[in-house]
């Protein structure tokens, strides 16, 4: 077949990260210590970090460069997937420095500017990548001061901003934040992080669908019965997390962003090309087709919210959600949510997408399963073993044990035509000889390369909030809100979530 001459020919050309000064706001926080610096270190260990990259951490606490590096090193030893190497760390960390400033102190930004200019005069890259990793209540201030101090423009290079989640707490706050961000950085220089998009397996969804003829021809309501997306976590509110989580809840914390992103990748049409906007245009179209909830009853019928009660997870007794540290004892925040989502377009009409996410479930695991319609009930339907046998299920394991497996029916060896369910299994570890890089590694490189494909666009974020707000409103604004269900910690969720599927003759897949 002729190639379309207007399409980008070589994808590898896209990913050329350029050196820059990476300025991290919120440098003393967990994200910087546990994710960002270890990601950069891992890249350095693989030789993938652009030469001459400098990192400047900005936060309120007084610290010397040396103290800052020491703290980062301790955490890196704990979490780096590459293992900590003293020599490499010494070389890597000499390019990391620290700048003390209140986020609202204009003078602090001017001093930062002077410092960055000096670094540039000494040979550092003129490009600037600003990473907003602070608590979200400081985003407005940081963006305002970046603009007022002229830090959002570089004489000789580019300036980009990476904005961490949560990106707003509802549509109105997200729109406000979008305005503030875009007042300071043009949309094409704005990178809204959703770290699920940086996971190798999430990236592989498009390749699986659009580089293999086999699946895409079946990828529609003629052949697919339903889809399930599960994100299970065994952790609860450790480490003071309850303070943030109790104001957010499962729907806002995970569904608005990570899970709707996964759903978009599964449900989108093939993009016109693989440019950032080509891909994101298609993802937004999916979000626009989600069937709205017009009434509280629609929410009650299609969404289950729940909190965990006390129970046992991995052999340890844990308290119920309302007894957790920093959680309001009368809290009406959900630690679990399950949804039945309909996508009203030609491809997916009539195919339910079930989604669930919860804290304090038996174990951690994220997967997408595509459940195909049954084969016609002729020939082998009476064979021994065929009763209640699962049909074809394609499972995309996002984490752990990253891979893809296809459940098929097979003849068990022997003289009788007895059927058995078996699996064709692809495991990253086996096929590629190594595990996947951390999501932040890929995303940081992409931001340095100016490739926004794996970042959420403004309209994507707003459309997702619009959907989620309808549910939040029914829960928190209506006179007769849908009930809050319960599940014991260490179980797979409330019975109401099972009933949500049972009504349509479906069952949650066991992870
Ligand atoms: C974060 C949420 O965005 O993602 C957390 O705020 C959640 O509540 C985390 O635990 C899960 O990420 P991962 O990569 O561990 O699945």
Question: How would you characterize this protein structure?
Answer:
By secondary structure, the protein is α/β, with parallel strands linked by helices. It is built from 16 helices and 17 strands. Strands 16-15-14-13-7-12-11-8-17 form a nine-stranded mixed sheet, sandwiched between helices. α6 (171-184) links the parallel β5 and β6. α6 runs antiparallel to α15. The site of 6-O-phosphono-beta-D-glucopyranose has 6 residues, from α10.
Note the topology.
Layout (H helix, E strand, L loop, with lengths): L20 E5 L4 H16 L8 E6 L5 H15 L6 H8 L2 E5 L5 H16 L6 E5 L6 H10 L10 E5 L7 H14 L5 E3 L7 H11 L2 H4 L7 E9 L9 H7 L1 H18 L8 H13 L7 H7 E7 L1 E3 L2 E3 L17 E7 L9 E7 L6 E8 L20 E7 L3 E9 L7 E9 H5 L6 H11 L8 H19 L7 E5 L6 H8 L9
Helix pairs in contact: 1-2, 1-14, 5-6, 6-15, 10-11, 10-15, 11-15
The structure holds 6-O-phosphono-beta-D-glucopyranose.
Describe the structure using short key phrases.
about 500 residues, nine-stranded mixed β-sheet, 16 helices, about 35% helix
What's the short story on this structure?
The protein is of the alpha/beta class.
Structural class of the secondary elements? Answer: alpha/beta
Note the overall shape: globular
How much β-strand is present in the residues? 15-25%
| Ligand names | 6-O-phosphono-beta-D-glucopyranose
Count the helices. How many? 16
- Can you give the mean pLDDT? 94
* Beginning-to-end CA distance, first to last residue: 41 Å
- Helix percentage: 25-40%
Main beta-sheet strand count, sense and barrel state:
9 strands, mixed
Determine Rg (CA atoms, Å).
Answer: 24 Å
- Residue stretches low in confidence (pLDDT < 50, at least 5 long) are none
Number of strands: 17
- Spatial sequence of strands, sheet with the most strands: 16-15-14-13-7-12-11-8-17
């Amino acid at each position: 077949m002729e190639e379309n001459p207007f399409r980008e020919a070589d994808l590898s050309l896209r990913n050329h990260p350029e050196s820059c000064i990476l300025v991290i706001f919120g440098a003393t926080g967990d994200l910087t210590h546990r994710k960002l610096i270890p990601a950069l270190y891992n890249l350095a260990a693989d030789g993938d970090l652009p030469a001459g990259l400098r990192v400047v951490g900005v936060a309120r606490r007084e610290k010397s460069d040396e103290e800052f590096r020491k703290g980062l090193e301790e955490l890196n030893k704990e979490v780096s997937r590459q293992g900590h190497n003293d020599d490499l760390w010494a070389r890597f960390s000499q390019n990391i420095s620290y700048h003390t400033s209140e986020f609202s102190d204009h003078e602090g930004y001017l001093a930062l500017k002077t410092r960055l200019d000096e670094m540039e005069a000494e040979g550092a890259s003129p490009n600037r990548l600003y990473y907003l990793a602070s608590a979200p209540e400081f985003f407005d201030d940081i963006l305002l001061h970046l603009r007022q101090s002229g830090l959002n423009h570089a004489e000789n290079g580019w300036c980009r901003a990476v904005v961490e989640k949560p990106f707003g707490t509802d549509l109105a706050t997200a729109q406000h934040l979008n305005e503030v961000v875009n007042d300071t950085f043009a949309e094409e220089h704005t990178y809204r992080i959703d770290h699920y998009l940086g996971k190798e397996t999430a990236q592989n969804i498009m390749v699986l669908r659009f580089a293999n003829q086999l699946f895409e021809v079946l990828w529609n309501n003629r052949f697919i019965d339903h889809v399930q997306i599960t994100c299970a976590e065994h952790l609860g509110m450790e480490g003071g997390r309850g303070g943030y989580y109790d104001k957010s809840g499962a729907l806002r914390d995970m569904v608005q962003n990570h899970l709707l992103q996964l759903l978009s990748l599964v449900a989108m049409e093939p993009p016109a090309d693989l440019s950032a906007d080509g891909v994101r245009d298609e993802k937004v179209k999916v979000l626009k087709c989600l069937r709205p909830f017009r009434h509280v009853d629609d929410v009650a019928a299609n969404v289950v919210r729940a909190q965990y009660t006390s129970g046992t997870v991995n052999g340890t007794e844990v308290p119920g959600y309302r007894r957790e540290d920093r959680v309001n004892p009368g809290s009406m925040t959900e630690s679990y949510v399950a949804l039945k989502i309909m996508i009203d377009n030609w491809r997916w009409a009539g195919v339910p997408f079930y989604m669930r996410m919860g804290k304090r479930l038996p174990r951690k695991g994220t997967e997408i399963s595509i459940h195909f319609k049954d084969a016609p009930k002729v020939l082998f339907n009476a064979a021994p073993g065929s009763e209640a046998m699962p049909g074809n299920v394609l499972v995309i394991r996002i984490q752990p044990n990253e891979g893809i497996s296809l459940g098929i029916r097979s003849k068990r060896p022997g003289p009788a035509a007895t059927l058995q369910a078996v699996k064709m299994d692809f495991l990253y570890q086996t096929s590629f000889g190594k595990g996947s890089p951390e999501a932040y590694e890929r995303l940081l490189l992409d931001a340095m390369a100016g490739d926004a494909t794996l970042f959420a666009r403004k309209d994507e974020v707003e459309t997702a909030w619009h959907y989620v707000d309808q549910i939040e409103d029914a829960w928190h604004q209506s006179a007769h809100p849908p009930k809050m269900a319960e599940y014991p910690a260490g179980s797979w969720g409330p019975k109401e979530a099972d009933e949500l599927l049972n009504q349509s003759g479906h069952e949650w897949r066991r992870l």
